[in-house]
Write a structure and sequence with these properties.
It contains four helices and no strands. The chain has 81 residues and is mainly α. Helix content is 62%, strand content 0%. Helix 3 runs antiparallel to helix 4.
Length: 81
């Protein structure tokens, strides 16, 4: 998926991702994703967040890596428009 984010936006999102990756494993949970969305004032319905998260979750795990996070964010931000 081509990114809708500029290089600077990706850097900012990487920093936000890293700050919210509470166990520093390079993965975030759905709760960490919700925290990030809230901090960015992006407020899609909870069910939408869960559905998008599950669509990108890593091979049966309950986490997203940064690339999957960017893809999920692109969809969730577009949902807000």
């Amino acid at each position: 998926m081509a990114s809708i984010f500029s290089t600077d936006e990706q850097k900012g999102l990487k920093e936000t991702f890293s700050q919210n990756d509470t166990d520093n494993d390079g993965q975030i949970t759905v709760e960490e994703l919700r925290t990030i969305l809230q901090s960015l004032s992006v407020t899609p319905p909870s069910e939408r967040v869960q559905d998008v998260f599950e669509a990108f979750a890593n091979q049966g795990k309950d986490t997203l890596d940064f690339d999957d996070f960017l893809s999920a964010m692109a969809i969730l931000i577009e949902t807000e428009k």
